[in-house]
Design goal:
With about 450 residues, the chain is an alpha+beta fold. Among the domains are: about 110 residues, RRM (RNA recognition motif) domain (Alpha-Beta Plaits); about 80 residues, Alpha-Beta Plaits (2-Layer Sandwich). It has a 4-stranded antiparallel beta sheet with strand order 4-5-3-8. Helix 3 crosses helix 6 and helix 3 crosses helix 10. The longest helix is centred in the middle third of the chain and has 51 residues. The chain is elongated. It starts with a helix and ends in a 37-residue tail after the last helix.
């Protein structure tokens, strides 16, 4: 039996020697057959030897190869004979434990873990902190200031108020200057447009006519400021056209309507409109004419010098009630310039007066009547000056102080609203129920029922 286990080779049985353990009966205790000695790995200084990689799993019907440092397994006819004592099945390594779930981030450094599974088992009684209002929510009330701190705070408030007043004054001054500049710019554009409305171009003038003839022909429509005729230096004659400028736009408009095509010096003159080298002024002219349509005013020219306002009013009030009748006063007292304006209460009355009284012989002169194309006092409006429209210094300072005070109150209210909005953010403070703010760390549910396990409350 022993020889068969050793491959058929006869070996003498081992005799028990000194120090060898023996079994009961005197037989020596033999070690297990083919037990490989443990691998001896010499220790290395400063190095750590990694264990050998595990062998690949054996396939079906195959035996895993021996580990390094172990003798080969016995074989018979080229086939490895596995034995129960030689099977080197290794125990699989235990699976690593699953990673712990991440802990919710806690914004409070003194709270290590969140609170779970909170259940309400009884009524919640509000604490005394709710009576403090916002101070109870924020924590403790503000500490009292010392006298030095009161002085410092007072100086800071005074300095802040002075700076606020300076800023408000500067803004008011800048806004006033911008408004004044815009008003002056609009007024200059309006005056330029009115000047253009006072001019007419007269063409196809006979070369034999002089400036006096042109003046006498256009004077009945209103006082003439200037007549400009271009002269040829070679022939010493004008070039056949002229520019007539009146004192008021209504005179130019009336001459434009009634003098175009009139025979003068053997020629039909042409009054074709207002020449302008400023096309941008047309929008201002349209604005002025639209504004004039809001009034039922008519323009009356070529009035006899001996007629008064009462005479003119008595004649024209036959067409309807008159609001006012005003003749333009001349340089001499109790003398007018020969033209004036009448405003009726209705538009129909003004239209009837124009159609009936134009070219009417009154006192030996033919009246010239037309619609007013400018609003009242259009030519007499003055540009506001800084001295006349500037606010007094005391009033400006008082207004600036009041404005600065209101701005400071608005800033405080805005900051308080920001703080309250942050305090009322979800997750920071519970929502008040029934007007009650709960103490820190206690949530009042809207309904008295247990919460789910995922419901968490982080105490303040």
């Amino acid at each position: 039996m022993f020889n068969m286990m050793n491959g058929g080779m006869g070996m003498p049985p081992m005799q028990p020697g000194p120090g060898m353990p023996s079994m009961p009966g005197g037989a020596p205790m033999m070690p297990p057959p083919f037990m490989p000695p443990p691998a001896i790995i010499p220790p290395l200084m400063g190095l750590q030897v990694a264990p050998p990689p595990p062998p690949p799993p054996p396939s079906s019907g195959a035996v895993a190869p021996p580990l390094p440092g172990q003798p080969p397994l016995p074989s018979q006819n080229g086939v490895t004979i596995p034995t129960s004592s030689m099977e080197t099945s290794s125990t699989p390594a235990p699976a690593p434990p699953p990673p712990a779930p991440p802990k919710p981030e806690c914004t409070y450094p003194f709270l290590s873990t969140p609170l779970y599974d909170l259940k309400q088992v009884g009524p919640i009684t509000p604490g005394p902190g709710r009576a403090l209002g916002i101070l109870g929510v924020l924590g403790v009330p503000l500490p009292k200031l010392s006298s030095d701190q009161h002085d410092t705070v007072g100086k800071a408030k005074k300095y802040a108020m002075e700076q606020s007043i300076k800023m408000v004054l500067m803004k008011q001054t800048l806004a006033h200057q911008q408004q004044l500049m815009a008003s002056q710019r609009n007024q200059v554009q309006r005056l330029q447009a009115l000047a253009l409305m006072c001019r007419v171009y007269v063409g196809s003038i006979s070369f034999e006519l002089k400036e006096d003839t042109i003046r006498q022909a256009f004077l009945p429509f209103g006082p003439i400021k200037s007549i400009n005729m271009s002269w040829d230096p070679i022939t010493q004659k004008h070039k056949g056209f002229a520019f007539v400028e009146y004192d008021i736009p209504e005179a130019a408009q009336l001459s434009l309507e009634q003098m175009n095509g009139v025979m003068l010096g053997g020629r039909n003159i042409k009054v074709v409109g207002r020449p302008s080298n400023m096309p941008q002024a047309q929008s201002v002219i349209d604005e002025i004419t639209e504004e004039a349509k809001l009034y039922n005013r008519i323009y009356v020219a070529s009035i006899h010098p001996d007629l008064t306002e009462e005479d003119i009013k008595s004649v024209f009030e036959a067409f309807g009630p008159i609001k006012y009748c005003k003749l333009q006063q001349g340089s001499a007292p109790h003398r007018h310039k020969g033209y004036g304006f009448i405003e009726y209460e209705t538009k129909q009355a003004s239209n009837e007066a124009i159609s009936s009284m134009n070219l009417f012989d009154l006192g030996g002169q033919y009246l010239r009547v037309g619609r007013a194309i400018t609003p009242p006092n259009a030519l007499h409006s003055k540009t506001p000056t800084p001295a006349a429209s500037h606010m007094p210094t005391a009033a400006a300072v008082a207004a600036a102080a009041a404005t600065a005070k209101i701005q400071a109150m608005d800033a405080v209210a805005t900051n308080a609203a920001g703080v309250l909005s942050k305090l009322g953010a979800p997750g920071l403070l519970p929502t008040p129920v029934g007007g009650i703010i709960p103490p820190p760390g206690i949530a009042i549910p809207s309904k008295y029922e247990p919460r789910s396990p995922s419901y968490q409350v982080f105490p303040l």
